[in-house]
């Protein structure tokens, strides 16, 4: 297991799927007594193995994130490095990698701030996997039947046991992720997530069991469900 790691905490996404009438960032929404983003931020701040938190936001929202963070912690935590996000998710990751201070940690995590319910155990299992693979990602089994669809017509039925819903955080050997992001930029390739960038270079990407509770708040329904989980204390930490 890597002794130390850095984390890229992505909070620069748009809210187009959350509410088409508003561009309010969903991770700034309240979840009980604190904003969504703080659930994962606090996890990394309290972990002595986490050296740097590269907190990626939109430039226009930076003051609001800083204000809320100071309100919670009374002063700005020294681990946080503020990064201005790019146009796409991959651009934001690239910006964060460029802003790491000092010597890079041997491992780096990439996490969506819109996934508030990560656990210390999941982080430990991901880091432990780096002893065998340069990239480790969490996934949960599909419950529904899965179809590959082209032009609204079923092209192929997928074997459910072989399909996983992929989550974050995803963890990488730092040099491996740097190589994958750099190559993608050079070839103008955009992937859905960072594991895909590493995979396309031929590196092994291992999958560990993710968490049912590790939902991503993407829609208004997701937010309603997340509020219910917190209020009913149905969340492990």
Give a verbal description of the structure:
The chain has 237 residues and is an alpha/beta fold. It has a single domain, classed as Spore Coat Polysaccharide Biosynthesis Protein SpsA, Chain A (Alpha-Beta Complex), CATH 3.90.550. Helix content is 30%, strand content 25%. Strands 1, 4, 5, 6, 7, 10, 11 and 12 form an eight-stranded mixed sheet that branches. A two-stranded antiparallel ribbon has the order 2-3. A two-stranded antiparallel ribbon has the order 8-9. A hairpin with a 2-residue loop joins strand 8 (146-150) and strand 9. The longest helix is centred in the last third of the chain and has 13 residues, at 174-186.
CATH topology: Spore Coat Polysaccharide Biosynthesis Protein SpsA, Chain A
* Tally of discrete structural domains: 1
Looking at CATH, the homologous superfamily is Spore Coat Polysaccharide Biosynthesis Protein SpsA, Chain A
Computed structural class: alpha/beta
CATH architecture: Alpha-Beta Complex
Counted beta strands: 12
Counting copies of identical and different chains, the oligomeric state is: single chain
Amount of beta strand: 15-25%
**Overall geometry:** globular
**Average of pLDDT:** 93
Number of helices: 7
**Order of helical and strand elements:** EEEHEHEHEHEEEEEHHEH
Cα end-to-end separation: 20 Å
Q: State the low-pLDDT regions, or none.
A: none
Kindly state the percentage of residues in helix. 25-40%
CATH class: Alpha Beta
Rounded radius of gyration (Å): 18 Å
Largest sheet: 8 strands, mixed
């Amino acid at each position: 297991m890597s002794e130390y790691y850095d984390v890229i905490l992505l909070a620069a996404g748009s809210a187009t799927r959350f509410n088409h009438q508003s561009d309010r960032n969903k991770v700034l929404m309240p979840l009980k007594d604190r904003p969504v983003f703080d659930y994962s931020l606090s996890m990394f701040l309290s972990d002595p193995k986490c050296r740097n938190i590269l907190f990626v936001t939109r430039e226009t929202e930076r003051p609001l994130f800083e204000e809320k963070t100071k309100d919670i912690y009374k002063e700005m935590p020294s681990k946080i490095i503020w990064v201005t996000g790019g146009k796409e998710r991959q651009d934001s990751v690239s910006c964060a990698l460029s802003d790491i201070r000092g010597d890079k940690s041997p491992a780096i995590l990439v996490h969506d701030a819109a996934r508030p319910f990560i656990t210390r155990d999941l982080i430990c299992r991901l880091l432990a996997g780096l002893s065998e693979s340069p990239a480790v990602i969490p996934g949960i089994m599909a419950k529904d039947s899965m179809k590959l669809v082209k032009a609204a017509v079923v092209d192929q039925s997928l074997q459910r046991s072989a399909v996983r819903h992929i989550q974050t955080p995803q963890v990488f050997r730092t040099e491996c992720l740097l190589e994958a992001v750099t190559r993608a930029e050079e070839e103008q390739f955009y992937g859905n997530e960072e594991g895909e960038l590493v995979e396309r270079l031929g590196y092994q990407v291992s999958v560990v069991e993710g968490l049912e509770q590790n939902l991503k708040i993407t829609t208004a329904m997701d937010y309603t469900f997340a509020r219910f989980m917190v209020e009913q204390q149905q969340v492990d930490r």
